[in-house]
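hey so u asked for the seq, here:
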Amino acid sequence: MAKKYKIVHDRDICIGCSACASVCPKHWIMDNDGKSSIVNHTKTGNGEEEILGTNKEPLTEDFEDNMDDAESCPVNCIHIHEVNDDETDKELI
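ran it, C-alpha cells below
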C-alpha cells in the first residue's frame, strides 16, 4: 500500500535557493519573487503555508521525490506529513 502524505511549505522562510525545483520539477517551481512554490498548491488560511495534498485527500505518488526535496532544503521550509487513515497526520521532516 502506498504511503499517504501531504507537503507543507513554509514559504515565508524560503530563501529561493531552487534546490527543490532542481530535485523535483514536477512539484516545484520558482516564482517571480525568487521563492519556490508548489505546483498546483492551495494556500492555508493564515497565508504562510502552501499545501499539496490534505488530510482528507492525501498524496500517494512521488513520496521519495518529495522526501528528497525536503531533505535538500537548507532552511527546512518543506515539511512532509504522513496522513493516517483517521485523517490525523504526523510530521516526518
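The first helix runs from residue 19 to 23. The mean pLDDT is 90.
lmk if thats what u needed
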